[in-house]
Amino acid sequence: MSKDQVDIVLIAAAWSGGAGALGLCAVWLLRTRSVRWLTGAVAVVAVVAVLAGMVGTARAMFLSTHDFNVMLLVSLVAGLVAVGAGAAVGTAFSGWSHALQEEARRFGESGEFKAGNDRGRGPAEFQGLAEELSRTSDRLRESRAREARLEVSRRELVAWVSHDLRTPLAGLRAMTEALEDGIADDPSRYHRQIRVEVDRMVRMVDDLFELSRIHAGNLRLSLEPVMLGDLVSEAIASADPVARARGVRLGGGVDEGLEVVADPAELSRVVGNLVMNAIRHTPSDGVVQVVGRAGPDHVELSVTDGCGGLSEEDMQRAFDVAWQGSSARTPDHTGVFGSGAGLGLAIVKGIVEAHHGKVSVKNHDPGCQFVVRLPNAATAP
Ligand SMILES: Nc1ncnc2c1ncn2[C@@H]1O[C@H](COP(=O)(O)OP(=O)(O)O)[C@@H](O)[C@H]1O
Ligand SMILES: [Mg+2]
User: pTM for this structure?
Assistant: First the structure.
């Protein structure tokens, strides 16, 4: 490059650069205005930068005045075209953004995001935004559905619990009246029956209390290392008489030395609820297996029964509060299987999740299998 050319580049850079810097300041001042102003201003800056460069280097170009005027005119016309194009693009931008704004406004009103067609949505960024809004809308719909399900099960809970409390209370009143009037032919049977009913109601109130603590989020866990084998043996030992009475074989095993960090009382409640459910839903001569295994980063406890399989709906709703299966509600008057108000599995889920674990159910011939996964002792909360 000759010295002349270097000079021209330097002079043009100084003039165009100066014009460009001033233009950027102007664009900055306009930044909160419509995008139409911005694209128009960018086009003006581009043209002014070219003109400034030309004016600055005019002397070095040795042009005649006539030639210089011609060049000025040509670049002015080109400039007008550029500004027009910039404004057109800006108008299109503002159209797309208004459409999106309108969709977002309707989203806010109806809670459903209905996107227009892709081509009417403009550049990739706007499409990305529309897709994000559409995903948000899906998530909102899901959480509304979840809320609605919760609300329904809460209402069912109140209805069923009052039903489940009213029936034994009516029985208790009848029995106490009979005792009072001295017309009970076998008072000791009445006493036993009263005792059983009261126990069952105590358990139901206890379950409700536990559930409300879980839902209020103030389940206080006192975590400590727990030998899973010991905990399962205790649960099996205390459930064994019930299993025997129903002719159900209760067995299983836990890996040697398997340890979890958990609240022992709450975890016992989990295992007890699952084992009792399994026994209750297994026909006589059936088998209930409780197995504890170590996974790569978790401990897995499974309770397998012979319930004959669960329907899709049962599996989806088993952990809902007050869900009692798609079969008819048949309160268990012995009370050994818990309150019988459909709270057991909701409590299991609440406790397991408070331990940062997960509980699930699947069919497992000839019955179903409830699986609790807890974080390893090393990774526990
Ligand atoms: N081991 C199981 N096998 C088959 N069904 C089960 C089992 N455990 C629970 N269920 C179903 O899930 C429902 C909810 O269980 P749960 O919350 O313990 O309430 P409850 O025992 O009071 O009925 C039960 O009514 C039953 O339909
Ligand atoms: Mg139960």
Answer: 0.64
